[in-house]
């Protein structure tokens, strides 16, 4: 590599690293407890589970489940209904003042078999919520997400430029060598390079998936404006279907499940909400395999007539988003994968911290 090219890559690595390091440290620190959010919620007694009822498999109509949830907040509407991947006997009903996107929502846990309210999920409070908001949007919504996405892009630049610089730097050293007989800064430089190249693939995957996740809102809006608008052209200009004019929700659910046999509900978006149209109950159905459980199939059913309208295949960018979300937090391989993710997260914190130390030490 020529001296000029080496200087260019060195400049890229230095400034991309410096600009994003503080924010990457924040994301690594907040991401560490989020890897174990299920386990932490369970240990703190904040996780709500459907009670064991041996032999009971019949589920109550979804309309009764929603009615039970709304009884707690009669002045609100049901915006979403979802079921955990590992507990089909539990419904989470999201209640908001209006159909529009908002942070003012209540989440009620209802037993799918008895339609009895089991409790209310804590929303907007507690340590885990603080970690999540800092990790996702820095408490400033979409601008915060896009800013963190930019920091993720700079991290990828820093990783690529670091790899380019690593080969000529290590030409006179054995791979992974740490010169313990040299100055403290030299030892930290060698350790920084060793840990950086060791966590290279993981850091790139987590950085790339995190960056993709920051674009989620924009991706969904684009999908609605481009694909759904074309599919639902016959509804153009029709007003939002009021609740009084909607048919039984259970009927529309049965239509959706019959259309996609072998799948079950991940979540339902009701008319006028951010994941649906003004006229449809939109069912997002998951498969029964580890991968297909993450790739959702939307099914739109007319909320007033209960008739099937469309089941569009998700575009590639939304499929990439759905795959990247659990991969970002290591949610594919159970506890062993989460522990591996946590260890790599800790090593990355050392890489980021040592890089900052090396820059400060050099300029002193």
From TrEMBL:
Instruction: Quote the InterPro entries the UniProt record gives.
Output: PepSY, PepSY-ass_TM
What highest taxon heads this organism's lineage? Answer: Bacteria
Keyword Cell division attached: no
Ranges for domain PepSY come to 61-120
Keyword list (alphabetical) reads: Membrane, Transmembrane, Transmembrane helix
Annotated membrane-spanning segments are 12-36, 146-170, 191-212, 339-360
According to UniProt, the name of this protein is PepSY domain-containing protein
Q: What is the scientific name of the source organism?
A: Roseateles agri
Q: Could you read off the lineage of the organism from its UniProt record? A: Bacteria, Pseudomonadati, Pseudomonadota, Betaproteobacteria, Burkholderiales
